[in-house]
């Protein structure tokens, strides 16, 4: 049984990156690990030993790890620092990233699994920014370690107003039901073109979110027909309000 010993947080990367290096230990003559030599020899392939060491030493530092690295568990921490999961973006093709809400966008890229572990069946790109796109997922084929492939990020434009949006994507795998985000962040600008129908729909949602006392005189059952009749005409809050007023 390895004794619990206190080790400085600054040594964690040394444990997972060292090869044939001496790593400072606890300076204790009673330590079963360094046997009083004040250091241990770590081989890069000693993954099991590293796992035990890091879990033993850093369990008490999880709050700091979670805050600084946005990693929730020791297992995720080990994956992150042993670089088991990683990918290299080889080439991002020139893509057509312009369209109206609910249209399909396909972004082609070539990438390589340059990590040390095969990806799970649940591997996908996930949009992490901006809020309007956040959480959109595009499934990809999992790659074995060392393999490369051309794939695509494919998604439907959400119901949002026209404008310029800079989307940011991370590659993710599910590991023991936990989501691991890894590798570089891909930034893709998207131009959302005007759609009068979607614009009017968003105005309707904005109206519905007003205080109940303001909208209690409105008949929202009329909304589908009004939106259909006005699909070629931009509405504002005031005009839609008047159209939805209940008849006495």
UniProtKB/TrEMBL annotation:
Domain Nbr1 FW as annotated: residue spans: 96-187
InterPro entries: Nbr1_FW (IPR032350)
Recorded superkingdom: Eukaryota
Protein name (Swiss-Prot/TrEMBL): Nbr1 FW domain-containing protein
